[in-house]
Structures are given as C-alpha cells and as structure tokens.
Design a protein that fits this description.
By secondary structure, this protein is an alpha/beta fold. Helix content is 35%, strand content 27%. It folds into two domains: 52 residues, no CATH class; 97 residues, Immunoglobulin-like, CATH 2.60.40. The chain contains four helices and eight strands. The strands form two sheets. It has a five-stranded mixed β-sheet, with no helix packed on it. The chain has a three-stranded mixed β-sheet with strand order 1-3-6, with no helix packed on it. A hairpin with a 4-residue loop joins strand 7 and strand 8. Helix 1 packs across helix 3.
C-alpha cells in the first residue's frame, strides 16, 4: 500500500484517528504513516493522553462534591443543641411574690438565674375582677413578658416561659384600663 501522507498528519487527522472518526478506507494510510513517522507517533501519544485526562476530568466533574454532607450534619447538630439547651433544665423555682401589709415591708422574692419560674402573685386586697394582666420588666423598666388573668384568683400562678439571667426584675399587676395596681421586686441570683 502506498502512503498518501508524504508530510506529517495534521492535528485534525490525528484527533479524528484518536477518536475513531477516520473512514475505514483512510485508516490504513494513517496507520502506515504512523509506523514510520516518530513525530506523528509522539503527537498521537500526546493527543491520547490529553483525551484520557479530559475523560477523567469529565467523570470527576459529574460526581457531586461531598464536602457539604459533614458541614450539614454539623450545622444540624449545632441547631439541635441550641434548641435543646433552653428546655434542658427542668428545674422550676416556685416564687411567692407578697405585697406589703400594715407598714411591714415584704422581703424581695429571690430566684435562681437560668431556672424556669413559677410565680405566685399576691393580689389580696385588690378586686380580683379588675386585675387584668401581669407583666415582668427588667431593672430599666423594659417589658420582658406578659400574661392575661381571668380575674378569678387572688393568688394567680404564672409559669414564666423564659429563663431570667441574674439581676433585679419587677412584676407588675395592671387593671383592665392599664393602671398599675401593684409592683413586686424579684431578685434573680
């Protein structure tokens, strides 16, 4: 068979051969030239290495990156602990808030910081049907929580849904018109 390639193969001819796109009639001529031309052999080898590297890169790119799974698991764990911690303490402190009577000062009620509080509020001497709500404020007077009363008890119980940090707080009783009827000091240590 005579070699129709007196000069080296073009890049396109080498690429077509590497990908198997050369017609069956031309394959014999290309292979004959490759047998005698070391330059074309080296170029073909480089072409085949490039194609192999490209295929590996394409397979790697198609696989999803797995780095996010441990990160997602860690984020879920942090969120679970963050949601669990406020509810982890089942310790409830029962605190009696007493009013001053007959000129005798009632001692300030005390509670433990970070515990849930169950407040028993002394409303004796007030018309219970007029007491509409209780509010707890911090030392600067900023409201922290509030509850409505049904007006049937002179010593209503209020389970505070939030834990208080150390400091001085005030529990205030208001009538339905918003007038403050009574105030109790609460020291949280």
């Amino acid at each position: 068979m005579t070699n129709n390639y007196s000069h080296c193969l073009t890049d396109t001819q080498l690429e077509d051969y590497a990908f198997g796109r050369v017609s069956p009639e031309a394959v014999a001529d290309v292979e004959e030239h490759l047998l005698v031309c070391s330059d074309c052999q080296d170029r073909l080898q480089a072409e085949e290495e490039y194609i192999a590297a490209f295929r590996v890169a394409a397979r790697t790119a198609q696989r999803p990156v797995q780095w996010y799974k441990p990160l997602a698991a860690a984020a879920c764990l942090v969120m679970a602990v963050g949601l669990w911690l406020p509810f982890s303490s089942t310790k409830v402190d029962s605190v009696d808030l007493r009013a001053e009577r007959g000129g005798v000062l009632a001692p300030a009620a005390t509670a433990v910081a970070g515990h849930k509080l169950e407040l028993r509020v002394d409303l004796a001497g007030l018309e219970s049907r007029n007491t509409a709500r209780l509010q707890i404020v911090n030392a600067t007077g900023a409201p922290l929580a509030e509850t409505r009363l049904d007006g049937t008890s002179v010593a209503p119980m209020w389970t505070l849904n939030r834990k208080l940090g150390a400091g001085t707080y005030w529990v205030r009783a208001y009538d339905s018109g918003g007038k403050q009827l009574r105030e109790f000091k609460l020291d949280v240590e």
